[in-house]
Amino acid sequence: MLHGKAQGDLLAYIDKELRPHHQVVYTTHSPFMVDSAHFDRVRIVEDKSMDAESPEDLAPEKSGTKVSTDVLSVSDGSLFPLQGALGYELCQTLFVGPNCLIVEGPSDLLYLTAMSSILERKGRTGLSPQWTLTPAGGADKVPTFVALLGAQKGLKLAALIDVQQKDRQKIENLYRDKLLKKKHVLTFGDFTGKQEADIEDMFDPKLYLDLVNGEYANALQGTVSLANVLHVEERRILVLLQEHFAKAPLKEAQFNHYRPARYFSEQLAKLKLSDATLDRFENAFKAVNALL
Fold this sequence. Notes:
The chain is of the alpha/beta class and 292 residues long. It has twelve helices and six strands.
């Protein structure tokens, strides 16, 4: 059995070399042997008598082996190769492009997209549209994600990620193991001047607390202010908030850093961003764009 990439190469060979001269018919259970650009060529073959609960009740014309193009009339098992092919194609087109900027998760996606738009509206530098933002699903998954994407030829990869002391070795391994060039590994600490920093630290602390207060207005035990949260400026704002909520828990909720990011994207028109915040994001975008 050929591996997935080789199956794709075989499919391309059939389409380029054989299809112009011959009709080619093949059977497969592999999603890699389904051309997602030509689902119209696919025929689903299944034994209806095996799927029916009472085969004896089926009319003769509906029983037995059937060939169909109607995805609504076939079983989930028969649809799996098509679902796999479609899922792979969606992954490639939605989150993978020729230039992939790997970030940690969906909150980064919201913040970076929104800040890029804000800067561009002000005539400043946003993130180049040539970059495809690709969330890895957490810092621990970034090296594996980079290794998997890096195996594909023709991709340019860079990472813009959080930095914590415990993860510094993993970050350094990205370029020590030659998964990425050193200059292609950027952290938010590079633009905040802190040893440890999340994307939330790119904002002024007061603005970020405004996002938290706005999103969790009905769950807070009193407004969260700089006075009761920001004890040490060098520490990450998320860590300080976790410590605060450990002492004054949210009512019927737990703090999730995605929710302030969603609130930020919904309230953009009402928020006032400082020049320092705009500068930090613009500097990050300039550094990332310079890698193209």
